[in-house]
């Protein structure tokens, strides 16, 4: 079966937190390997499945090794069959369907931020297999999301934990790269999904609310999915950050470029959603612009 729901993004907007907390709900099943990247990647060859460097392929191999070791040690809960299917078998829609078990009283889903960027043909194909699919899209200030993305990249690439030295032009090229930028083009991504799926099957919420009221944020998603949203199903550590950045701020010069680049998008987002979060994003950009203009 295809999943009952997908978390489609956005990248660096709380999807790891969402996976961690939904996976612990008694009425929800999520793959033990986060981000399968089936829908947004071309099918990998056997060689790539065995030796490819892509993170999702490496994660599938690591999970298979762990399950094999657990099985050899006699673990009764080792799911070696699932791990082998996920890692070794050729990718296809039928393969993807085998990864989601049919369990009475439980929903199956996947959280993968790459899926927000799917084109219309792929989304239409998905609806043929999963017409009642529910979609969760978490949005973050696109300026902050882009900086968090590039900070994570340069921290990993250079090993420089405090980002005190990095190539600003290289950072800007990455931020404005077509593929990278598409992760933050929320309205264009939403337009594709909304052209195929009805609005009642699409849930949008905001990273700011996750930070300010994580319990109610999670409760809203559970209610949308139609599962138990009582206090008993909200983890005690729901406020714990997952895969979080380190709070670095971009250098003033780069921030000025980010504000200028993203301001039209911030205005469009506030015109669409007109809530306290989009207003905050826009006000912060305007305030920074005024400070820079005043100091010029």
Account of the protein in words:
- There is one protein chain.
- The protein has 296 residues and is α/β, with parallel strands linked by helices.
- The protein has one domain (5-43, 91-295): 3-Layer(aba) Sandwich (Rossmann fold), CATH 3.40.50.300.
- It has 14 helices and 5 strands.
- It has helices spanning 15-22, 46-51, 55-72, 80-88, 93-98, 120-129, 142-158, 168-176, 178-182, 186-194, 207-212, 214-225, 252-273, 276-295; strands spanning 5-9, 28-29, 107-111, 134-139, 202-206.
- A 5-stranded parallel sheet has the order 2-3-1-4-5, with helices on both faces.
- It is globular.
- The mean pLDDT is 91.
Q: Please state roughly what percent of the residues sit in beta strands, choosing from under 5%, 5-15%, 15-25%, 25-35%, 35-45% or over 45%.
A: 5-15%
Name of the CATH superfamily: P-loop containing nucleotide triphosphate hydrolases
- Topology order in helix (H) and strand (E) letters: EHEHHHHEHEHHHHEHHHH
The whole-number mean of residue pLDDT values reads: 91
- Structure class: alpha/beta
Can you identify the CATH class?
Alpha Beta
TL;DR of this structure?
With about 300 residues, this protein is α/β, with parallel strands linked by helices. Helices cover about 55% and strands about 10% of the residues.
What is the fold's blueprint, element by element?
Layout: E1 5-9, H1 15-22, E2 28-29, H2 46-51, H3 55-72, H4 80-88, H5 93-98, E3 107-111, H6 120-129, E4 134-139, H7 142-158, H8 168-176, H9 178-182, H10 186-194, E5 202-206, H11 207-212, H12 214-225, H13 252-273, H14 276-295
Parallel strand pairs: 1-3, 1-4, 2-3, 4-5
Helix pairs in contact: 3-4, 13-14
């Amino acid at each position: 079966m295809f999943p009952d729901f997908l978390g489609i993004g956005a990248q660096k907007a709380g999807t790891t937190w969402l996976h961690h907390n939904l996976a612990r709900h008694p009425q929800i099943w999520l793959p033990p390997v986060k981000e399968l990247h089936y829908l947004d990647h071309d099918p990998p060859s056997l060689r790539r499945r065995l030796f490819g460097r892509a993170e999702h392929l490496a994660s599938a191999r690591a999970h298979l090794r762990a399950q094999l070791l657990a099985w050899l040690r006699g673990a009764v809960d080792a799911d070696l069959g699932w791990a082998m299917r996920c890692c070794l078998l050729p990718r296809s829609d039928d393969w993807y369907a085998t990864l989601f078990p049919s369990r009475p009283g439980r929903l199956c889903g996947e959280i993968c931020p790459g899926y927000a960027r799917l084109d219309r043909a792929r989304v239409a194909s998905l609806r043929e297999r999963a017409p009642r699919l529910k979609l969760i899209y978490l949005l973050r200030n696109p300026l902050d999301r882009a900086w968090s993305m590039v900070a994570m990249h340069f921290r990993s690439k250079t090993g420089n934990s405090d980002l005190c030295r990095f190539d600003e032009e290289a950072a800007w090229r990455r931020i404005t790269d077509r593929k990278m930028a598409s992760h933050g083009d929320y309205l264009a991504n939403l337009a594709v999904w909304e052209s195929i799926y009805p609005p009642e099957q699409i849930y949008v919420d905001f990273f700011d609310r996750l930070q300010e009221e994580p319990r109610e944020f999670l409760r809203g998603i559970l209610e949308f999915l139609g599962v138990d949203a009582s206090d008993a199903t909200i983890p005690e550590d729901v406020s714990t950050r997952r895969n979080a950045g380190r709070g670095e701020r971009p250098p003033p010069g780069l921030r000025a470029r980010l504000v200028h680049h993203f301001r039209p998008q911030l205005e469009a987002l506030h015109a669409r959603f007109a809530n306290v979060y989009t207003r905050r994003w826009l006000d912060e950009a305007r305030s920074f612009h005024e400070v820079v203009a005043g100091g010029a």
